[in-house]
Amino acid sequence: MHFSLPLLALGASLVAAVPSLEVKGNAFVNPKTGDRFQIVGMAYQPGGSAGYQPDKKKDPLSDKDHCLRDAALMQILGVNTIRVYNLDPNLNHDACASIFNAAGMYMLIDVNSPLVGESISSWEPWTSYYAAYLNRTFAIVEAFKSYPNLLGFFSGNEVISAEKDAEFVPRYIRAVTRDLKNYIAKHADRAIPVGYSAADVRDVLMDSFNFFTCAENGDATDPSRGDMFALNSYSWCGNSDFTKSQYDQLVKNFTGTSVPVFFSEYGCNEVKPRVFTEVGALYSDKMTPVLSGGVVYEFAQEPNNYGLVDIHDDGSADILADFYTLKNQYAKIDSKTIQATKPSSSSPKPPTCDSKLIKEAGFDKNFTIPVLPPGAKEIIDNGVKPAPVGKIIKIDDYTVKYKVKNPDGTELQGLAVKPLADDQSNTPGSNSPSGTSGNGNASSTGSSSSPTQSKKNAALGKREMAASGVGILALTAAAFFGLLI
Ligand SMILES: *[C@@H]1O[C@H](CO)[C@@H](O)[C@H](O)[C@H]1NC(C)=O
Ligand SMILES: *[C@@H]1O[C@H](CO)[C@@H](O)[C@H](O)[C@H]1NC(C)=O
Ligand SMILES: *[C@@H]1O[C@H](CO)[C@@H](O)[C@H](O)[C@H]1NC(C)=O
Ligand SMILES: CC(=O)N[C@H]1CO[C@H](CO)[C@@H](O)[C@@H]1O
């Protein structure tokens, strides 16, 4: 084995790729090592919903230089997966997918968008379930199925957010899951996981979990059963703890799950600045046996104030203080251990779908899944026509073109994506250009940030900080680190 290492490294500079992951029981597994994979994820929707404009040929994975900037920054953080919500199947995503692949990051892709005709509606779902809608979701499959770093598809996101949406919607989400899985089985060369991303609303969460992960007659191959289940979890706010956040209940409730469960969003911002202490809990041995990590909401700053990086129209960007707080929390994760556990050898059988699984009175108890709408069978049989095609391409230059500044106003030097060796996913510390240690401020040396300090940073506007002279100090520090590297 040892002899082949240099050869592998050589090959890696040509076409490095992360290994496509598989689902085994309640775990994502790297088939090459047999190790379990924990998602260290980032929600990526620069521009918010305006970042998706099919009429302007624009979506979050269609601009190479933007992706280079953001992948480089996420590499510094230590992210290994991105979640992207709204995509146009007919745009070319090769450069961005290849950049994130080289940076060691997987992609979780939502097949829907908020536009009419591009998602199942919470209200009268049958009016939104038709062939052209399915054709679009299958086109997303076509556009992404060939990227090795595609981790999975979300068949829906928070379509059920209250009991009022729960009477009929669940069976339609199961129908879409079935259709996507049947399409993938016929037209993709590997089993790509499909699952639902649920709202963490107590009235509907566990019923959603049971509804989407049970199987007809307990048969795990039932195509309408989700391959994974995710929840958008915002119950840990500020310096909370395992019990106060009710993470203990989540672990208890999902124990024995027959599919991987993870947070498809987390990062409550009710207490500001965020301290991201939930990271320590999420990747601790209290949670990793049951959950498979989570996705932080979110990379780009938007009016709702969850962002880590403020991106400007000219492509330049300002790193916000929360970015370094999260980076420092990620740095404490014991990646080697959490990414190298063996999945449990016994996979729990899926529960048999039965109205007894459902607790809330208003929640769908009908497991007869709606039949395909007219015209859809032909598309599943023959494939989307014309089908978009995606492929990994060679990226000649990984240098970031835009100026990116630290919270104190200093500019990051030498910012570039650092392509990883073949079969590597990104971990904290795999890329650290000068000026990105500590808090991204002049005097920072250590790897821990105190909440009081970040509060101060957030309170001080960027301009004030520069005026106070911190900027000049930081430049000196950046130059110093530059010499070291
Ligand atoms: C199906 O999707 C493809 C790719 O987006 C598109 O070109 C085609 O017109 C669609 N067909 C139907 C019937 O909606
Ligand atoms: C756990 O499940 C129980 C029973 O369904 C439910 O009452 C409780 O709200 C759940 N807790 C969480 C945190 O979802
Ligand atoms: C269950 O749902 C199916 C459609 O998915 C419908 O045809 C059937 O009538 C429903 N059954 C009941 C008892 O409501
Ligand atoms: C000016 C400023 O915010 N300095 C802080 C930089 O980061 C270090 C380490 O967290 C703090 O100790 C400094 O106070």
UniProtKB/TrEMBL annotation:
GO terms for biological process: fungal-type cell wall (1->3)-beta-D-glucan biosynthetic process; fungal-type cell wall organization. Its EC number is 2.4.1.-. It is found in: Cell membrane. Keywords: Glycoprotein, GPI-anchor, Lipoprotein, Membrane, Signal, Transferase, Transmembrane, Transmembrane helix. It is a lipid-anchor; GPI-anchor. The chain crosses the membrane at residues 465-484. Residues 425-452 have a biased composition (Low complexity). One of its GO terms (cellular component) is plasma membrane. Gene3D superfamilies: Glycosidases. One of its GO terms (molecular function) is 1,3-beta-glucanosyltransferase activity. The keyword Signal applies. It is an enzyme of class 2 (transferase). Residues 1-17 form the signal peptide. The keyword Membrane applies. Its main location: membrane. Splits internally a 1,3-beta-glucan molecule and transfers the newly generated reducing end (the donor) to the non-reducing end of another 1,3-beta-glucan molecule (the acceptor) forming a 1,3-beta linkage, resulting in the elongation of 1,3-beta-glucan chains in the cell wall. Belongs to the glycosyl hydrolase 72 family. This is 1,3-beta-glucanosyltransferase.
